[in-house]
Write a structure and sequence with these properties.
The protein has about 450 residues and is α+β, with helices and mostly antiparallel strands. The chain has 18 helices and 13 strands. The strands form 4 sheets. A 6-stranded mixed β-sheet has the order 1-2-3-9-6-4, sandwiched between helices. The structure holds protoporphyrin IX containing FE. The site of protoporphyrin IX containing FE has 24 residues, from helix 12, helix 13 and helix 18.
C-alpha cells in the first residue's frame, strides 16, 4: 500500500527547531480549534520530524474505537509519558493481558457496587464544606482534587488519605507535569541520560509507591474481604490459580488512583466555573437542588430528581472534556478516511475538537445545558459526544464518575456559593487532563452558614 497523507500544517525542520528553542509552548487545544476550519476533521500535521493525524470526525472516531479497535494500539508516546508512573495498568495495557485485567476489575464498577459508594461521596463533600468559612478565598481546582482523591482512596481501597492528601496531590501534580513534558517532548530521550527533571519524577513516583504499598500491606495483614477493588484484585487468580504479583497490583491501583480522581475533579472545577459565569443556569440548578433536597444530605435515590444537574455536568464535559483526547496507532498499514495510514502512525482523536465541531454542535462555543435535555440529547450524533471514549476501552469508571459529579455538585450548591476572584485569566491547558492553566481562585460564601454540620 502506498502511504498518502491528508492535507494539514507542515513545518520544516529548521523552523521547528527555532520554535522549540524559543521555548514557546505548544497549545494543543488552540491548535485543534484553529486547524479544524481550514483542514477539516481528518488532517495530518508535520512539525519537522514529528507527524500526527488529527481526528475530530464522529464517524472516524466510531470506526477506530468501536468498529476496528483490534487494529489499533494505544500510542507508544502515552506509554513513554505515563509508563514510568502507571506501569502496565489498565490504561496502558494491551491485548489478552489487558482483557484479563479489565475482566478482573470490572465487578468493582458494577452499578450495584458503586451505588454503595454514594454516602461516602456525600459525606466527604460535606466534610470539605464544613472546613470552609464565608469570606475565604480558595483554590477551587485544588479543593476538588483533594476531595476526589479522598473519595477514590476510600471507596476503592478503603484507605484514608486525608492526612496525606496535600502531599499526594503535590506529588501527582508534579508527576503529571513531568508526564506532560514527556508527551510534548520534541525527542523521546532515554531515561538513563542525566536529567534533573526525570530524576525528580522518579523520586516522586517512589514516594507515591510507598503510600500505595501501604494500602496493599494493610489489607494483606488484615486479610479482610471488603468487597472493594483492592480486595477483588488481591483475590483474583489466573487460569493457573496464581494471584497477581505486587508489581501488577501496584500498577492497577496507581492507574485507578490517577484516572479515578483528576478527571472528575476537573469536571467539577469547570462546571463551577461555567456556573459562576452563567447566573441564570445557576439559579435554575439551585432551585432544582433545593426542591429535591431541602436541608438534608443527598442520597443515591435523589439522583432521579437531579436531571438538570446532569444536563449541566454533561454540557460542562462537552466544553471542557476532562480527557481531551485519546491516542491510537495502527498495528499495520491500513485504510482510513480515504488515505493509507502507516503502521505506528500517531492518531490523535481529539474529544475537545469533536465537542467543538460546528458540524456536530451548533454554536459550539456557547454553554447551553439544554443540549442535553431528554428531547434534545437524542439528536446529538451517536459518536458526537464522547467524554468517556467508546468501544471496548471505554472508561471503566464512567458510572462512578457521573454519580460522583452529581452528588458532589448537589451537595456543594446546597451549601455554598462561590464567586470568581476578579482579575484572573482562566485558560484551559491540556496536561493529560484539561486543567485551568493557573488554577481558579474563588471567594466562598456558605448559604445559611450555621446549618453546615459536620457529618457524624
Ligand atoms: C469525568 C470523569 C472521567 C472522564 C472524563 C474519563 C475519561 C476516560 C476516557 C476518555 C477513557 C478512554 C481512554 C482511551 O480510550 O484511550 C478512560 C479510560 C479509563 N478510565 Fe476514565 N474517566 C473519568 C473517570 C474515571 C474514574 C472515576 C475512574 C475510576 C475510578 C476511571 C478509570 C479509568 C480507567 C481504568 C480507564 C482505562 C480503561 C481501559 O482501557 O480498560 N475513569 N477514561
Amino acid at each position: 500500500m502506498t502511504i498518502s497523507y491528508p492535507p494539514g500544517v507542515r513545518t520544516g525542520v529548521v523552523e521547528t527547531i527555532r520554535t522549540v528553542l524559543s521555548g514557546v509552548e505548544f497549545d494543543m487545544l488552540q491548535f485543534v480549534t484553529d486547524t479544524q476550519p481550514q483542514f477539516g476533521d481528518f488532517h495530518y500535521t508535520k512539525f519537522g520530524w514529528v507527524g500526527f493525524y488529527m481526528i475530530t470526525d464522529p464517524d472516524l472516531m466510531h470506526e477506530i474505537l468501536v468498529d476496528r479497535p483490534e487494529e489499533f494500539y494505544k500510542i507508544k508516546l502515552i506509554k513513554y509519558a505515563l509508563g514510568p508512573f502507571l506501569g502496565n495498568g489498565l490504561l496502558t495495557n494491551e491485548g489478552d493481558f489487558w482483557k484479563r485485567q479489565r475482566k478482573l476489575a470490572q465487578p468493582a464498577f458494577h452499578f450495584k457496587r458503586i451505588e454503595s459508594y454514594a454516602d461516602i461521596m456525600v459525606d466527604y463533600a460535606r466534610r470539605m464544606l464544613s472546613a470552609w468559612r464565608t469570606g475565604e478565598t480558595r483554590r477551587l481546582d485544588r479543593e476538588m482534587m483533594k476531595l476526589t482523591l479522598n473519595i477514590v482512596a476510600k471507596t476503592l481501597f478503603d484507605a484514608d488519605v486525608s492526612g496525606d492528601a496535600d502531599r499526594v496531590g503535590d506529588l501527582l501534580t508534579r508527576i503529571l507535569e513531568a508526564s506532560n513534558d514527556r508527551l510534548n517532548a520534541a525527542v523521546q530521550l532515554p531515561d538513563w541520560l542525566p536529567n534533573p527533571k526525570t530524576r525528580q519524577m522518579y523520586r516522586d513516583i517512589a514516594e507515591l509507591d510507598v503510600i500505595i504499598q501501604r494500602f496493599i500491606d494493610e489489607r494483606r495483614q488484615s486479610g479482610e474481604d471488603k468487597g472493594d477493588l483492592l480486595s477483588m484484585l488481591l483475590q483474583a487468580r489466573d487460569d493457573e490459580g496464581k494471584p497477581m504479583d505486587d508489581k501488577q497490583l501496584r500498577d492497577e491501583l496507581m492507574t485507578i488512583f490517577l484516572a479515578g480522581h483528576e478527571t472528575t475533579a476537573m469536571n467539577l472545577t469547570w462546571t463551577w466555573y461555567l456556573l459562576m459565569e452563567h447566573p441564570e443556569v445557576m439559579a435554575r440548578l439551585k432551585a432544582e437542588i433545593d426542591a429535591a433536597l431541602g436541608d438534608r444530605p443527598a442520597t443515591m435515590a435523589d439522583l432521579t430528581n437531579l436531571k438538570y444537574a446532569e444536563m449541566v455536568i454533561k454540557e460542562s464535559m462537552r466544553l471542557y472534556p476532562p480527557a481531551p483526547s485519546v491516542g491510537r496507532e495502527p498495528i499495520h498499514d491500513l485504510q482510513l478516511g480515504g488515505y493509507t495510514v502507516p503502521k505506528g502512525a500517531l492518531l490523535t482523536l481529539s474529544i475537545y475538537g469533536l465537542h467543538r465541531n460546528p458540524k456536530v454542535f451548533a454554536n459550539p462555543e456557547v454553554f447551553d445545558p439544554e443540549r442535553f435535555s431528554p428531547e434534545n440529547e437524542k439528536n446529538i450524533p451517536r459518536y458526537g459526544y464522547l467524554p468517556f471514549g467508546a468501544g471496548p476501552r471505554v472508561c471503566i469508571g464512567n458510572s462512578f464518575a457521573m454519580m460522583e459529579a452529581r452528588l458532589i455538585l448537589a451537595t456543594m450548591v446546597q451549601q455554598a456559593e462561590m464567586a470568581l476572584v476578579p482579575g484572573q485569566k482562566i485558560v484551559p491547558k491540556q496536561l493529560v487532563t484539561v486543567r485551568p492553566a493557573n488554577g481558579i481562585e474563588v471567594k466562598v460564601s456558605l448559604r445559611e452558614t450555621e446549618k453546615v454540620a459536620l457529618p457524624a
